[in-house]
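Revision sheet: structure tokens.
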Amino acid sequence: RRGRPRRHVGTRRRPDRRMRVLVEATGEVGQRTAQVLLSQASVDWVGILRSTNAKRSKRSGPASGPQGYDIAVTDAPGSPSNLIAQCAVTGIPVVVWADATDVAPGNAVIPIVLAANAGSALPSALLSHPTAALDDDDPVTVAWTEPGKPKRRGETIVFPEPVGRSVARQRSAGELVATVDGKWAAVVAHIGSDDDRRIVGVADHAAYLEALVLGAVVLAAAAGAYPPGVHRAGDAGEHLLNALDQVELDIATWRSTV
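Predicted:
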């Protein structure tokens, strides 16, 4: 069955004001993220940076830099050091799709939010879902998909449909990765023991799922979920869960008992 996450007390919000978002769209994820943000009533204008397909409309158009914007986001696969530097000068937060592990904390004067992708950011949000009912003693396994040839050996993990059962291999303690072919992607969290297991997960078109997550992190960052400094998107799981509700990501929840 599917359910929407409840809104949690404590989400920090800026005063009501429609914001201007700068999107560095290097590929399909960035282009889709722009569309996700344009669907939000809180967004007034989306500027598209470095996209050959950017066309002017009533609420979006080409942009040359972060000046005049409230927040910036990039889907670049590497470390966007130039954009981060420009945002620091302008004084606006920046959200980065890539893990960008080479970005040093330093003395950042703006929020720099890294790893705003499905595999890195979604697990903490799913674990904040009311169905997870996470206790300190609960065993937890999180898993996500990556594109590639499906494995024949490993641990079987259940994702929401249409991904379903897939063979995954351990990436680190409590983390599994399943390679899947096709256009679908999924992330899931299994909480509890075999006799009472809570499962919270999502599945969607891969690029669209990434865009929903990236857009949600932008909304969370704009609402003040990340203070100045370098953060990973998953550091604010509860705030991210609320933002995922705003972008209307369907979250599947169920229980498994034996």
